[in-house]
Structures are given as C-alpha cells and as structure tokens.
Amino acid sequence: MTKDFDKEKFEMIDQIIEDVRHIAHNISPAVLNLYGLSEAVAELADRINQAGRIRVDTDNQVADQLDQLPHAVMLSLYRVLEELLNNTIRHADASAVQIAFFREGDRLVMTYADNGKGLPAEIQQGMGLANITNRLEVAGASWQFAGAERPGFFIRIEL
After folding, report:
1. Contact, 94 vs 113, CB < 8 A?
2. Cβ burial, residue 17 (10 Å; 0-12/13-18/19+)
3. pTM for this structure?
C-alpha cells in the first residue's frame, strides 16, 4: 500500500512540475524573449497554418520597430493575437485571417481581420474581449472594432 501511495505522490509531483513548466512558458513564450514580437507572431501563424484548420497570413512592414517595443508591450500584443486567433478558430467559422503591422505617421498599427461570421452584439462583452481590452490598456494602445458594415471580424490597434 505504501509503495502505491508513494508512486502516486511522485506521479502527482511530476505532473505539477510539468504544469508549472507549461505555465511559465505561457507567461512569456521563449521565442518572444529570444527573437522578439515579429518572430513570435510568425511562429504563431506557422503553427496555426500547420494545423490546417484556418489560414493565417501576416504582413509585417515594421519588424524592427516591433522588436524594439518594451517587453510588456510585446507580450500584451502577443497575448491579444493569441486570444483573437483562438476566438476566430473556435467561434467564427472563418477560413482565413489577415494580420498586418505597419506605420502611419508616428503610430505603429496592427490590424486583424477574419472572414468569419463577425461579432454578435450579445458577445461583445464576453470574457475574451475583456482580456483583449485589458491587455491593450496595459500596452497603452488604442483600438477600434469594425461594425456590422464589414463582413467578418476586424480590429485596428494603434501604439
């Protein structure tokens, strides 16, 4: 009985260690720390494209400027993209996403668009959107969602 109990404890400890590693990785992805936001976004798009459920295209015209942002801002933008992509994959019935980074005057701009069914009015106050807006506030960004006049989902984020 004691050997089984000890084995269960060790298995639980191993699982806890694995969970902590997973959490630590998710707090700040290694690629973001090592190579910056541009590479982290490219890797995220590649992973989703390899899964084959949806096509993610990126257009990054300001890679150097993105990679010079403070780490907290880069992490916030990365997490926003993860949330947006997750929402698109899970809820939008979309086949494609376009993410663009560019400069307008002294502002860095990110746009995210999918060709899904858009954002129903009753979901606009959901937890996912609250996470997105909170992270954008932390990054000091302004943002604007497109209305019903545009098909799919669209957000414009400015730094």
Report:
1. no
2. exposed
3. 0.79
Tens-place pLDDT, residues 14-47: 677 665 555 544 556 778 888 899 999 999 999 9
pLDDT in tens, 108-124: 999 999 999 887 666 55
pLDDT at 141: 94
Which one-letter amino acid corresponds to residue 61? Q
In whole angstroms, what is the distance from residue 68 CA to residue 117 CA?
35
Torsion sign over Cα 90, 92, 97, 101: negative
127-139 and 71-91 helices cross at what angle (nearest 10)?
A: 160
